[in-house]
């Protein structure tokens, strides 16, 4: 049945397709990066439409926010023009067509979109939906599954972010970067500073953004959000300040001596919560053991702790990534 | 209250190195970072051996993370093969850390060495996490931990080619991981679960479905990319050739092996008893790729002037042998594949360690030190290193009384059992190609005069590098003569994998 | 298959088809583009399309976001959209941004080392330095052989 939602989806998907094709064709990398930010935003709208509010939240803050900033930083250090290729790569086209055809063949037997009786709405999901409220005391099912039922995955996810920070420090954190505020500020930063509307807007926004980050961190149990989104939003606030007002002051406040131990601390809080549950007689990450009489209270405590760990690591990793990319001088 | 540690070992195989990595940020002095990595590796090896003993004594172990029973929570599942992999990963890990101190000092700047050891611990955590998990999506997360840390480790190599090698590996590795995720998503769509055993139970019950077929194809291509199965091996030669030698040693002996382990898991746990397996020749499909890889990669290896790259191409060929074992689709074939996986880890570990010793002393540019010409006269200059190289080379070729012979023997037996005479002949023929490329190095080192202007005084590698090297060489000979440990374990692991999956949580419920 | 069932099938699967097309556009950018930054952007596109695919499979018609509401405040049963794909894809987004950051850092270093971020120019630079090294080592190996032959002749 064609519903309003279907129609909205159709329009948004068409937009996505056009954006993607434009990204393929355009050779100005600055434009491509901007389009990729738009692509992420449109995707986030679709995710909201598909009831995946947490994913929408994350895609908007990461895809359209952090990723775009990192790409712009890379463009500033490299070049913004893509060379025109000499010839069409038929081999690549063939591989893509074969892969796409295989996927299309695979869709034939897929359960229909939106079907409540499809296999994934199975006993596994049923328990999450019917029992998670009592078992974990957390109304946002995405949060309870993320931090408790599949908390082990999320520990790995936090480690992946930690790994990325270490890797970027290995690659870009060497002698070329200076932690001291002697780096000449990029010309773009200074020109941003001179724009009154930007300055006024940013002044108004930065406080609420940082406040909102804390709200998302501690309210993620009840509404969309959680440690990851909060960390990204907090970092975005700091990055906004650094871009528009004062890179050096932001860097001095969140200097490596502060951020690096915090990156490590977040991972340790997460895994440490897992170890702590062992001492309370539970399995690894079995938060119920924290409070044998009220398992749900134990769950709430455990989820709070691990989300805190995620938030600390993610916010500091994002800031480290930004400062490392921006602190590097153009060769 | 103190927890009952042996009971909680499964999650700790991942958690211990995972927590050790952030703690490593504290020790920035290279010697402390190295000591920390060594202590952690020793502890994790001890844990792995304990787990192997437990699994051999009491059967498979299942652990419900967070006290959530599967399929709601993530299940960790340790059978003989996964316990064996744990011992292999952590054993090689400890050896490369002990060996790597001098090598890392010479190849990586002092201010970055602690980051190197953090990355190593993360790679160890990721690889261990992959072999203990019973959950298809959790495997992806652990895969990414190990992949990201590997990209960083490879990029630490001297010279700019390490950067492009890491970049290409990153792009192809991410494509592989994304294919894997597409495959898992499609399986989830038709079965409604992510637990491997639970997926198997659902697939056993249902008729063949086109979505499943495509899902398995995507899983195979994705894992094939990470495994560097011919023709998806393009990233491997440069990555191994330009990474720091200690990294090459560690990755060559563990990372591709773990990818093979995932392939085995998909075939034997996820597809356990699925009607899909009976109606499509999935396993046999591997055979042509395996044989093509054995020959083409060995032929390319013969023409390499960079010794590390030559050994890297040889690895692609050896992955062909392992995949061939899997392709036989029999208990003995699988056992032969597992035997070769263990043996090849020891062989390539020893060969790359010997290369590292030579690089340390030749000490010209990164690519110059591994050129076959630079090795001229090395037989007199570094007799112990070269002797170890020759012994490990003999094992690679498959000379009797070495582990390489044991693997090829069991592979050929498996081929005879299937009546595939031609395949058996091809195994022997491709082994002859290994003679050619190993001989080129031996000839240069013993029979060619040293390059003009190079140092010819005798100058062995330090004992800290020679000891781990000779330990691996000794293992190559020991397990070549006394085959009980490797062969018995591999056969037990293989026959356990052929057991039908009947229930969740280790079949206990 | 009748026309109506075909149309039903199309309506039931168009989301997946769009996802496949978007995946392939991203995949094509990754493997066909010679620019290292564009390849990373292509990877992002590819991964976002996979995320879209997962999220599409979780949606239930008439469902709502999986945040439990107080049953006393609503009339009738509430249908929640499947939360599991969301959980998985949150992880995937994080992994994606981690990979991008690492890839971009590599691109910056490659630009510093090669002065280019175009694949073919980098390949050409590598070939040139390989050829130079090859010639240099071949010459010294030949010289070593000549010296040895002379010494043997002398003896």
From TrEMBL, chain A:
Protein name according to UniProt: Multisubunit sodium/proton antiporter, MrpB subunit
Topology of the protein relative to the lipid bilayer: Multi-pass membrane protein
Domain Na+/H+ antiporter MnhB subunit-related protein: 197-320
Pfam families named among the record's database cross-references: MbhD (PF13244), MbhE (PF20501), MnhB (PF04039)
Originating organism: Insolitispirillum peregrinum
Localization per record: Cell membrane
Record carries keyword Membrane: yes
Primary location recorded for the protein, binned into one broad class: membrane
Domain of life: Bacteria
Transmembrane spans: 6-24, 29-48, 60-78, 90-108, 158-175, 196-216, 228-245, 257-281, 301-325
InterPro entries: CPA3_antiporter_subunitB, MnhB, MrpA_C/MbhD, MrpA_C/MbhE
Keyword Acetylation (UniProt): no
Family stated for the protein in its record: Belongs to the CPA3 antiporters (TC 2.A.63) subunit B family.
Protein keywords: Cell membrane, Membrane, Transmembrane, Transmembrane helix
Residues annotated as domain MrpA C-terminal/MbhD: 15-78
NCBIfam families xref list: PRK12504.1, PRK12507.1, PRK12508.1
GO cellular component: plasma membrane
Residue ranges annotated for the MrpA C-terminal/MbhE domain, each copy included: 113-178
From TrEMBL, chain B:
UniProt organism field: Insolitispirillum peregrinum
Keyword RNA-binding: no
Family assignment from sequence similarity: Belongs to the CPA3 antiporters (TC 2.A.63) subunit D family.
Domain NADH:quinone oxidoreductase/Mrp antiporter transmembrane intervals: 135-433
Keywords, alphabetical: Cell membrane, Membrane, Transmembrane, Transmembrane helix
Membrane topology: Multi-pass membrane protein
GO BP terms: ATP synthesis coupled electron transport
The name this protein goes by in its record: Multisubunit sodium/proton antiporter, MrpD subunit
The keyword Cell wall biogenesis/degradation is assigned to this record: no
A GO cellular-component term linked to this record: plasma membrane
GO molecular-function term, one example from the UniProt record: NADH dehydrogenase (ubiquinone) activity
TrEMBL record, chain C:
Entries under Pfam families matching the protein: Oxidored_q2
Origin superkingdom: Bacteria
Database matches in InterPro entries: CPA3_antiporter_subunitC, NUOK/Mnh_C1-like
Topology of this chain in the membrane: Multi-pass membrane protein
Localization, UniProt: Cell membrane
Gene Ontology cellular component annotations, sorted alphabetically: plasma membrane
Organism expressing this protein natively: Insolitispirillum peregrinum
Keywords: Cell membrane, Membrane, Transmembrane, Transmembrane helix
Transmembrane segments: 14-33, 40-57, 87-108
Primary location: membrane
Name of the protein this chain belongs to: Multisubunit sodium/proton antiporter, MrpC subunit
Similarity section: Belongs to the CPA3 antiporters (TC 2.A.63) subunit C family.
């Amino acid at each position: 049945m064609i519903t309003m939602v279907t129609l909205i989806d159709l329009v948004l998907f068409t937009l996505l397709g056009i954006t993607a094709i434009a990204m393929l064709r355009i050779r100005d990398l600055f434009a491509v990066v901007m389009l990729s930010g738009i692509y992420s935003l449109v995707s986030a709208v679709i995710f909201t439409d598909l009831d995946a509010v947490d994913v929408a939240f994350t895609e908007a803050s990461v895809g359209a926010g952090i990723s775009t900033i990192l790409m712009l930083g890379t463009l500033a250090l490299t070049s913004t023009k893509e060379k025109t290729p000499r010839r069409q790569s038929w081999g690549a086209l063939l591989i893509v067509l074969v892969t796409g055809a295989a996927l299309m063949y695979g869709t034939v037997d897929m359960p229909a979109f939106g079907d409540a009786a499809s296999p994934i709405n199975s006993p596994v999901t049923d328990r999450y939906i019917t029992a998670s409220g009592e078992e974990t005391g957390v109304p946002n099912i995405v949060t309870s599954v993320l931090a408790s039922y599949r908390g082990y995955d999320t520990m790995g996810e936090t480690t992946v972010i930690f790994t990325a920070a270490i890797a970027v420090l290995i690659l870009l954190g060497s002698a070329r970067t200076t932690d001291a505020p002697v780096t000449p500020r990029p010309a773009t930063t200074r020109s941003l500073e001179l724009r009154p509307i930007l300055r006024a807007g940013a002044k108004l926004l930065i406080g609420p953004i940082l406040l909102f980050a804390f709200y998302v961190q501690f309210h993620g149990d009840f509404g969309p959000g959680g440690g990851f989104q909060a960390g990204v939003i907090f970092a975005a606030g700091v990055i906004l300040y650094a871009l528009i007002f004062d890179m050096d002051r932001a860097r001095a406040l969140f200097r490596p001596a502060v951020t690096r131990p915090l990156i490590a601390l977040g991972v340790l809080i997460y895994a440490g919560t897992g170890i702590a549950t062992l001492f309370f007689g539970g399995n690894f990450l079995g938060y119920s053991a924290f409070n044998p009489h009220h398992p749900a209270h134990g769950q709430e405590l455990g989820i709070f702790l691990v989300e805190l760990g995620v938030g600390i690591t993610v916010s500091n990793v994002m800031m480290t990534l930004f400062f490392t990319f921006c602190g590097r001088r153009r060769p | 209250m103190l927890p009952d540690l042996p009971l909680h070992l499964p999650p700790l195989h991942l958690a211990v190195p995972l927590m050790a990595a952030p703690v490593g940020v504290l020790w920035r002095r290279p010697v402390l970072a190295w000591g920390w990595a060594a202590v952690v590796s020793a502890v994790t090896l001890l844990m792995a051996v304990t787990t192997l003993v437990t699994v051999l004594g009491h059967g498979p172990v299942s652990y419900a993370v967070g006290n959530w029973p599967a399929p709601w929570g993530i299940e960790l599942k340790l059978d003989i093969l996964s316990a064996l992999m744990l011992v292999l990963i952590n054993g090689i890990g400890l050896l490369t850390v002990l060996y790597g101190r001098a090598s890392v000092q010479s190849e990586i700047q002092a201010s970055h060495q602690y980051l190197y050891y953090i990355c190593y611990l993360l790679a160890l955590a990721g690889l261990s996490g992959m072999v203990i998990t019973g959950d298809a999506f959790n495997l992806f997360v652990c895969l990414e931990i190990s992949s990201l840390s590997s990209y960083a480790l490879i990029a630490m190599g001297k010279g700019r080619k390490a950067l492009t090698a890491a970049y290409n590996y990153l792009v192809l590795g991410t494509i592989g991981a994304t294919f894997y995720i597409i495959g898992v998503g499609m399986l989830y769509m038709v079965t409604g679960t992510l637990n491997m055993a639970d997926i198997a139970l659902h697939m056993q019950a249902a008729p063949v479905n086109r979505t499943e077929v495509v899902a398995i194809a995507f899983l195979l291509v994705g894992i094939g990319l990470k495994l560097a199965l011919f023709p998806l091996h393009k990233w491997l030669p440069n990555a191994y050739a330009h990474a720091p030698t200690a990294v090459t040693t560690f990755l060559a002996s563990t990372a591709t092996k773990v990818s093979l382990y995932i392939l085995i898991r998909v075939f034997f746990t996820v597809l356990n008893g699925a009607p899909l397996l009976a109606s499509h020749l999935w396993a046999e499909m591997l055979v042509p790729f395996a044989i093509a890889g054995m020959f083409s990669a060995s032929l390319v290896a013969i023409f390499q002037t960079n010794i590390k790259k030559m050994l890297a191409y040889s690895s692609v060929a050896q992955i062909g042998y392992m995949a061939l074992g899997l392709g036989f689709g029999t208990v003995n074939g699988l056992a032969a594949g597992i035997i070769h996986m263990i043996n090849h880890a020891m062989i390539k570990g020893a060969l790359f360690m010997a290369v590292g010793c030579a690089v340390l002393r030749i000490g010209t540019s990164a690519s110059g030190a591994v050129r076959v010409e630079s090795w001229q006269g090395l037989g007199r200059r570094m007799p112990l290193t070269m002797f170890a190289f020759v012994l490990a080379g003999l094992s690679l070729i498959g000379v009797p009384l070495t582990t390489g012979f044991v693997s090829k023997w069991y592979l050929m037996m498996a081929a005879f059992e299937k009546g595939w005479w031609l395949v058996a002949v091809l195994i022997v023929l491709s082994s002859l190609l290994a003679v050619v490329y190993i001989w080129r190095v031996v000839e240069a080192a013993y029979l060619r005069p040293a390059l003009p202007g190079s140092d010819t005084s005798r100058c062995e590698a330090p004992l800290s590098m020679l000891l781990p090297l000779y330990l691996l060489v000794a293992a190559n000979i020991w397990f070549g003569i006394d085959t009980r440990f490797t062969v018995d374990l591999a056969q037990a692991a293989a026959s356990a994998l052929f057991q039908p999956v009947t229930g969740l949580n280790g079949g206990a419920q | 298959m009748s026309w109506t069932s075909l149309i039903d099938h199309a309506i039931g699967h168009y989301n997946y088809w769009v996802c496949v097309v978007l995946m392939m556009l991203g995949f094509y950018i990754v493997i066909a583009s010679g620019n290292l930054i564009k390849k990373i952007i292509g990877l992002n596109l590819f991964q976002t399309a996979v995320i879209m695919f997962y999220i599409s499979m979780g949606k239930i018609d008439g469902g709502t976001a999986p945040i439990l509401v107080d049953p006393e405040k609503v009339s009738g049963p509430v249908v929640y959209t499947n939360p599991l794909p969301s959980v998985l894809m949150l992880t995937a987004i994080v992994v994606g941004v981690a990979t991008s950051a690492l890839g971009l850092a590599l691109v910056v270093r490659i630009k510093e080392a090669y002065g280019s971020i175009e694949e073919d120019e980098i390949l050409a630079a590598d070939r040139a330095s390989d050829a130079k090294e090859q010639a240099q080592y071949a010459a010294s190996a030949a010289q070593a052989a000549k010296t040895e032959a002379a010494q043997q002749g002398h003896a």
